[in-house]
Amino acid sequence: MTSLDTISDERRARGPRRARLLAIALLSGGVAVAALPVAAQVQRTGATVRLVGHAFQAPPGVEMLPRPADADQQPLTFTVVLKMRDSAEWAQFKRDYYDRNSPEFHQGMPADELTERFGPTQATYDAVRSYLVQQGFKVVQTSENRRTLTVRGTRAMTERALSVRIADFARGAARIHATLDDPAVPADLASSIAVIDGLTTMPGHHPNGLTAPSPATPQSVATAYNAYGFYGLSAKGQTVAIYSESNFVPSDVQNFLSYSGLPASLYSNVSTVTIPSNVSVGLTSSTGQAEVTNDIDTILGFAPGASVVVVMNDTSAGNTYSQVYNALFEAAQGSSRMGGIVSQSWTSCEVNNSSAIGIQNTVDSLVETASMSGTTVFVASGDTGNAGDSECQLLEYPNSTYPNGFPNVEFPADLPHVVSVGGTTLYTTASGSNAYGSEIWFAQAGGQYLKPAGGFGTSATQLAPSWQGFYSVATHRSVPDVAADADPTTGITTCLGTTTNSSGQTVPMCGSFGGTSLAAPIWAATWALVNAQTGPLTAGNGNIYYISEIYTQPGTNYCAALMHSPWCLPTGLGTDFQHLGLGSPNISNLISALTGKPYISTITPDSGSEYGGTVVTVTGYELGSATQFRIDTFLAANAYGTLITGATCTNGTTCTFTMPAESFGWHTITPFDSYVSATASPSIGGRWGPTNPATNFEDLIPIIRICYPFCRYY
Question: Residue 322 is inside which H or E element, if any?
Answer without folding.
Answer: helix 321-333
